[in-house]
What does this fold into?
Amino acid sequence: MIDLQLTDKTHDEERQGEALVIDAPEVRNGRKLYIESYGCQMNFADSEIVASILKDQGFETTGDYHEADVVFINTCSIRENAEQRVRNRLSQFGAEKRRNPKLVVGVLGCMAERLKSKFLEEEKLVDMVVGPDAYRDLPQLISQVEDGHKAINVLLSREETYADISPVRLNGNGITAFISIMRGCDNMCSFCVVPFTRGRERSRDPYSILAEAQDLFDKGYKEVTLLGQNVDSYKWKGADAEEHAEIEVNFAQLLEKVALISPDLRIRFSTSHPKDITDEVLYAIAKYDNICNYIHLPVQSGSSRVLELMNRTYTREWYINRIDAIRRIIPGCAISSDIIAGFCTETEEEHQETLSIMDYVGYDFAFTFSYSERPGTLAARKLADDIPEPVKKRRLAEILLKAQETSLMRLQQFVGKTVRILVEGTSKKSDLDLCGRNDQNAMVVFPAAPGVKAGTYVNVYIDRCTSATLLGTIAVEVPEIV
Ligand code: 5AD
Ligand code: SF4
It folds into this structure.
């Protein structure tokens, strides 16, 4: 389960700090950057942009902060415990800074944006604070620190999409990669700090997205995940490729364009919003075999009253209608969710409604959270965080148990069947096994076989499963797809 939490999530923060290093670092005489990322896939993708900006300044990445000249921590604010983890880590970097006073320590991302200059006051060992839209300014900010000043840039932008920056792929497997297609969020879910830390929603120019996807494919990547806080509201207006006419591109159209790069390039995307996901998007998924049958569609709560308090702008019935549309248009599509336990004023009956909607949908996977009040959000200003901690915990445990039951049921449907998977590499548990995901995003583990390597598609016969993984053996070998 943990594995999925760590690797699947676009929009959530639970990934613990991972040091990101270029797989084959170019040897340079320059300085060394250590960057550690927390939170959603978007943050990890942002760190690749940061590495690219600093690479142009002669920085190479290192996986060991003891040998770094600059240490960045790309932070997450979504729940209080995410921030706590970052603070603990900063105190470790502080010890290193006492040993090596020249070390530059910078806080990037959502916590930087939320706390702004307070960070420099509270955490005396931090030299720079940089918000998610200010990464182009990093070289200048680093010089400022090297000149003996503290540096800060937390300006949010209405335009910045880093469209022209080619991310340096960090810690990748060379097979799957993320592509940011938009930034920010214009929804105002009352519990959520993201609109305050990542600013207004803006969509990236589709030509740069297509060029990035094509480039990845040319380099041997076989899967791209299009990232945004709310991909269904992707909308770009501008001149067409020949600059003859003004065109508009929506998410369904963007999906099609990326899918047409090659049938051998798999497309995933996250996160979808129930109020915005259209039938047009569903038909695009159904039309192209290489657009994966997997939708992350957070419900948050199964109660219409709670959804209204959350300002999610849909009801239980609306959500169910969207699920029915997915089941009708894309039979067999996997669906995952985010669910919050113990939101302000939630009654026991309303909690039961959440459990019952989970039964209705039969989620393939659910990310479950206990409500954590975030300063400045609508809920923090207007609603009492009145569900006692033990009640939140118990509700969360019930939701988690239900999620495990439905995951197991969904995985069991593959037992006795053959699934096509994209091999991602050796399994974490044994070098003798390979792993990869099927179309529905389920992790599949099977014994390695000669000639089957990362980046190939193989058919695997599934003979058993756990609640998180399918296990099987290679059935029919599909020749490597180039
Ligand atoms: N408390 C608990 N969970 C939250 N999320 C966002 N904000 C909060 C919060 N204040 C969850 C939502 C969202 C996911 C990324 O994190 O479920 O979809
Ligand atoms: Fe937060 Fe809602 Fe935007 Fe997701 S859609 S980032 S939960 S405000």
Remarks:
- The CA atoms of residues 102 and 196 lie 33 Å apart.
- The longest helix spans residues 389-412.
- The chain has four domains: 2-153, 173-235+246-292, 295-412, 418-474.
